[in-house]
Specification:
This protein is mainly beta. The chain has 2 domains: about 60 residues; about 200 residues, no CATH class. The strands form 4 sheets. A 5-stranded antiparallel β-sheet has the order 5-7-12-9-10. Strands 1-2-3-15 form a 4-stranded antiparallel β-sheet, with no helix packed on it. The chain has a 4-stranded antiparallel β-sheet with strand order 4-14-8-11, covered by helices on one side. The radius of gyration is 28 Å and the shape is globular. The N and C termini lie close together (about 10 Å).
């Protein structure tokens, strides 16, 4: 005859800043006066309340402009205090903008808090501050839609040109296409309300290659461009004098469940013991 009895006890504990619930099961199998005791752990989880955020300003940014007749396409504006996005059909021509962020300090901060490889991305947001066009090369601000994409190629250079003194060294409208590829990833299309002041925060999509860059603490590059025929936006750049108005990328991370926690969706044996109660054979 075989008899089976099961008892359990549950408790909470904290491991690497994660709240974990563990239920221990003891199953005893008795057969012909031989008993086996099996112990198992079930139901571990981490608490998302332990999320942490880290923010960085761009390490490089620039706008590129076609101009009304293509006359600005060879100019670099990497030293300008603004970033611009405008639809191609507007009177002053098309504008696109690029930003690059170095995420090595972000990775270091999360590795220190959660452990190396023990965190995952919850969200990534980009904060931009609208400003008033202050040079005749820009289109007037107008509401519309714009898109942000992650760029696979980070090799573009910012340059030092400004609207008052453009240069030909660094990224330009003419050279932009050489830095775009089929591996670029769309991070979202967003609404711009036509404002000339105030902050707006945009939540970026967590696409595979972009997320891998974030987790590795690499440089990440973004391209911002018109998604309709009406939008014209001007934002403060990293060169703008007021630090709080500069672009800000914020990554929020949560602790990754430990290897122990990852295994609890099934029943795992931790200890097995055999205890003889008599010198009888089954």
């Amino acid at each position: 005859m075989v008899r089976v009895s099961i008892r359990n006890i549950g408790f909470f504990f904290t491991l690497r800043n994660s709240d974990i619930f563990c239920k221990i099961y003891r199953m005893t199998i008795l057969r012909n006066q031989h008993a086996w005791s099996l112990f198992a752990c079930l139901s571990l989880f981490n608490n998302p309340a332990w999320a942490a955020s880290s923010s960085v300003n761009p390490s490089a940014d620039a706008f590129v402009a076609a101009g009304p007749t293509g006359n600005l396409s060879n100019n670099n504006y990497g030293g300008a205090g603004a970033l611009s996005i405008s639809a191609p059909n507007l009177s002053q021509g098309e504008f696109q903008s690029l930003l690059q962020f170095n995420l090595s300090t972000v990775k270091s901060a999360f590795d220190s808090q959660f452990g190396v490889g023990q965190w995952s991305i919850q969200s990534v947001t980009l904060q931009l501050t609208a400003t008033t066009p202050n040079n005749a090369i820009f289109n007037s601000s107008a509401a519309g839609q714009f898109s942000i994409s992650w760029m696979q190629n980070d090799a573009w250079t910012e340059g030092t040109g400004t609207p008052q003194a453009p240069t030909t060294t660094g990224i330009t409208f003419s050279t932009l296409n050489s830095f775009l590829s089929a591996g670029d990833e769309a991070l979202g299309t967003f609404s711009f309300n036509g404002a000339t002041s105030g902050n707006s925060t945009f939540t970026l999509g967590l696409t595979p290659s972009f997320s891998a860059d974030v987790l590795a603490g690499n440089n990440v590059s973004f391209r911002m461009f018109a998604a309709d025929t009406t939008v014209s936006a001007l934002f403060d750049s990293r060169s703008f004098g007021t630090a709080s108005a500069r672009p800000l990328l914020t990554i929020t991370a949560v602790p990754e469940p430990t290897s122990l926690a990852l295994g609890v969706m099934g029943l795992y044996l931790l200890v097995g013991s055999k205890r003889a109660r008599a010198n009888l054979h089954p």
